[in-house]
Amino acid sequence: MPVRAKSIYEPAEPDDGVRILTTNYWPRGISRERAGTYKRIVGPSRALLRAFKDGDIDWPEYERRYIAEMAGESQQREIGELAQLARAGNVTVMCVCKTDDQCHRRLLKALIEQRMEAP
Question: Cβ of 51: how many Cβ atoms within 10 Å?
Answer without folding.
Answer: 16
